[in-house]
Design goal:
Blueprint lengths: L1 E6 L3 H17 L4 E6 L1 H4 L10 E4 L17 H8 L3 E4 L7 H7 L4 E2 L16 E4 L10 H6 L21 H11 L5 E5 L12 H12 L4 E6 L5 H10 L5 E3 L4 H8 L4 E5 L2 H8 L4 E5 L4 H4 L6 E5 L9 H11 L4
Parallel strand pairs: 1-2, 1-4, 2-3, 4-6, 5-6, 7-8, 7-10, 8-9, 10-11, 11-12
């Protein structure tokens, strides 16, 4: 069984799609599953339970699949046709990508009543996710909806889980070192300023955490979070453990070493939750009932309109609940 998952999108979207892939893996444990997506993100599943291989979606020959009537790259057509099942999560309002996939010899699953009984023959079925931008149920269930055509149970518990390798774990333990202190990982950005708790409050919170004996602070950062990082460096010159150049698999492994994670509705927040780290996530513009990670180890602080209204003491109370300080 060869299965292709086509998945663009950001880190959080990718992680929230993994439960759907897990359902396929559970149904066909020995299947060869590949991801056509962004390698820097899909690495989270590569040789880590989900995918045997990853192929980049952002390389030149793929461009023809997004143009109506375009001549398609022959090697890519053969590649896509080599799978017995294709599931696409590409936002495709004009159906251009879908129509070009069908030109590769795929079968339109919308027209095939035999999928649930798994008796499909001939051309491989194409399953499409409904508009991935318009989600009205928990995102993990929304992204699993295409699999209903295969007769998957709808009462499955769908929580993302990242499967770290021994190499991942060795990297993280070496990076963390032998300090006995409990590690508090903080990601003060999100890639969108409107999702961020004010940096002045993060600075105050970091200062308070650093005063607690036995706690060690790790600041993680990405390209979109440099302003927040500069502010923290100005406030604590040379005093913080900062990681701002890790790959996503390295970051996930390091977050798994943390006793607690603090952040926003962001990719690192989803990584921390998916490796099982107790997490406190601040949500504002996005609905946590849809987009927040699930699990008893995740606490969501939701301020619907203005994140400045979230008081430091409320965050501190959540920290004390997750991380007793006595």
């Amino acid at each position: 069984m060869r299965i292709l998952i086509i998945r663009g999108g950001a880190v959080g979207d990718f992680v929230l799609t993994l439960p759907a892939v897990a359902l396929l893996r559970k149904r066909w444990p020995n299947a060869h599953i590949e991801c056509l997506g962004y390698p820097g993100i899909a690495v989270l599943g590569l040789k880590r339970y989900y995918f045997e291989a990853v192929r980049p979606i952002d390389y030149r020959p793929m461009a023809g699949f997004f143009i109506p009537g375009q001549a398609l790259d022959g090697e890519l057509r053969d590649y896509i046709a080599s799978f017995q099942l294709v599931v696409s999560y590409i936002y495709d309002p004009d159906q251009i990508f879908r129509k070009n996939l069908l030109r590769c010899g795929l079968n339109d699953a919308e027209e095939d009543p035999t999928l649930a009984s798994q008796r499909w023959n001939g051309s491989p079925p194409l399953l499409l996710c409904e508009d991935p931008r318009v989600v009205d149920i928990a995102a993990t269930y929304h992204f699993a909806k295409p699999l209903r055509k295969l007769g998957f149970l709808e009462n499955e518990i769908l929580s993302p889980r990242l499967h770290l390798t021994e190499q991942d774990l060795r990297f993280a333990k070496e990076r963390k070192g032998t300090s006995p202190d409990r590690l508090v990982a903080i990601h003060p950005g999100s890639g969108s300023e409107s999702k961020n708790w004010p940096i002045k409050k993060w600075i105050e919170l970091v200062g308070r955490i650093r005063e607690v004996e036995g706690l060690r602070v790790l600041i993680t950062s990405g390209e979109a979070d440099q302003e927040e990082l500069r502010a923290l460096r100005r406030e604590f010159p040379g005093e913080l453990w900062i990681e701002d150049a890790l790959s996503l698999d390295q970051l996930a492994a390091l977050l798994a070493q943390a006793t607690l994670f603090l952040g926003h509705d962001s990719g690192p927040g989803h990584l921390a939750a998916a490796v099982g780290t107790p997490s406190i996530l601040i949500f504002g513009k996005t609905d946590p009932l849809i987009w927040a990670p699930r699990g008893n180890h995740v606490t969501v602080l939701y301020v619907r309109d203005n994140l400045e209204l979230l008081d430091l003491e409320e965050v501190w109370a959540a920290i004390v609940t997750k991380l007793p300080l006595t």
